[in-house]
Amino acid sequence: MVEVIKKGAYLVDGQIVWGENAAGQESPDAAREKTIAYSILRKHDKSTDPKKMRLKFDALISHDITFVGIIQTAKASGLTKFPIPYAMTNCHNSLCAVGGTINEDDHAFGLSAAKKYGGIYVPPNQAVIHQYARERLAGCGKMILGSDSHTRYGAYGCMGVGEGGGELVKQLLENTYDVAAPEVVMVYLEGKPRKGVGPQDVAIALVGATFPNGDVKNKVLEFVGPGVKELSCDFRIGVDVMTTETSCLTSIWQTDEAVRAYYENVGRPEEYQELNPGNGAYYDSVVKIDLSKVECMIALPFHPSIAYTIHELQADPEGILAKVEEACNKQLGGKVTLDLRRNIVDGKVTCDQGVIVGCSGGMYENIVEAAAILKGQSIGNGYFDMSVYPSSTPISLAITKNGTAATLMEAGCVMKPAFCGPCFGAGDTPANGTLSIRHATRNFANREGSKPGNGQIAAVALMDARSIAATARNGGVLTAATDIDYDEPTAEELTYHYDGGVYAKRCYEGFGKADPDAQLRYGPNIKDWPKMPKLEEDLLVRLCAVIHDPVTTTDELIPSGETSSYRSNPIGLSEFALSRRVPEYVGRSKAVRALEEAREAGEVPAEAASVLEKVGGDLKRTTIGSCVFANKPGDGSAREQAASCQKVLGGFANICYEYATKRYRSNCINWGIVPFTLDRDAAFPYEDGDWVYVPGVKAAIAGGVEDIPAKVIRGDGSVEDIALKCAGLTADERLILQEGCLMNYYAAGYGKD
Fold first, then answer.
1. Domain range spanning residue 727?
2. What is the dihedral of CA 682, 685, 690, 691, to 10 degrees?
3. CA-based, 20 to 30 A from 23: which of 54, 290, 412, 581?
4. CA–CA separation, 476 vs 401, rounded Å?
5. 22 vs 180, more confident
6. Residues 466 and 435 in one domain
């Protein structure tokens, strides 16, 4: 089904030629430039160093969890107008009731910002962020930067990168996105999917094969091969959007007449160009996927990489679910117990809820296929229920006109507007102890909205819309779509007749029309960022959270869902930091922040002075802050709030063995949190409350010193040496850390090209 081959290869006349057999080919560095990926990257690269890219993007996109903070940061940094198209969608918290008028206040702020700075505003329920970008912003050979991790438009010949808000601020200030020249992985597709197999099946198989060992982390996936032409554009983008879960940097596909037809359909034929790798293009590794062998898949809690075929799970439900349960409960840390085996009834796995939603599930073809499976059927009147969220109003309009929506409603499905809520816990939150199957992007712990602190837990398994519909047709009993008989939709039924008139009637298209005199509309919950202290010569940080889980997600660092109602209030949102993982973190961090505030006021906080006395430190030249230790933090969402909340609470450092994603590390740097790492074999036996003293840290960062000695002052007063690393910082990143955050960096006059 999926084969990962960890060796370099050339693509010669459409055939894979392994490096050891490639006599006469160019060197890997030269031939890598022939990939589609590098043909696009180099056009956007402003660097003179071929190994270090400085990219400028063609467009930006954000949603309503992130755009207020981005605008506030950019405004504080000197923003006057948007230099490139910037679309602000309202698809994440549109329906979240927590906080009363908070959500609509933020939406009004977004429209006012679009008017003032010349942006694009997409009102609530018009489109989820990525469907709008696909229909209105993507173009072959272009690059889009989004403040959402699933910014992926590679199937349409457009490279999408998901990052934290700080990186979008840099683009708004006409600076660059800095990244080491990435490796490129060939994803070679062959064969044709069987009836009942959908894009999520291919995606889960790909994620399951690549994520666990970090095979494609921070690399570019380039999809080529004869199998590409066997896939519709909807199928391709359905696979593409899930590449985020492999931990790759971005993705790109070869293009063909199907892509040309897509751009013609959405009224932008000029955006098409044929993209193919040059003959003899070099790839650093290869992933081969035989589409004909892909089966209906399920990704079990709590990660898209916990991948099984549905047939495997049906054959051994007790054994597989017991194994998954054990891992999940270990991750939950005893706060609550997940019982997946309760869903085994008469030897069969039963499900409680089905949801087709968002940028991965809510596409036209997925919904039409689900309707075909459910035509004339009933989901039943038991506990199982099912919701369908088309990803844009044009899709809703199309399925209304052709009767697809009626077919689903007749079967008992509930039709919803364009909204990302179920993807992150703001809609269709499942009941306690239940199992929800979803064609969505993620199934991390508590992301669906459960609250372990209140004794509540639910589980999400990812599946394709086709198998969700098959399961619904079978009353909630887990069923692969390949195991049922149904009439496939006709070619006409699968043809998406796009009508962009609804966008023209509701969306504000203001790029190039900035009005400096327009006033930003503030609601009472929209607050400016608090003052961020600079880094002094030395650093003293207290461990306020020590997490030894294999991976720590951004959802654990700052929960999604209803907490995001406070997204435009930095102090209010920070109260939720690590609330579902280390509830004591906020109080501990505030106590440390009070010490730094006292120091800045010229006082001598006794606790800090006592600690510094043990290591010969000088309070006047020492920043005091909090610190989080985690083995591998930052998997998942691009939300910068995972870092900004730490900073607002007084955070000044993270310590880990490695960062799960570049985007989380970048978020930390942009908020002035020093991204320390440890050698892989180094022990970290330290606990909450221990202190870490880093003398000369500012000079070390300024000088590009990567090995930084430090000392740990333990709770019993003993002092131990620790070897920290701070590797791979760019010149700008070193300045940002010294100044204390990105806003301070701009306020100090840096970053002006």
1. 538-747
2. -10
3. 290
4. 29
5. 180
6. yes
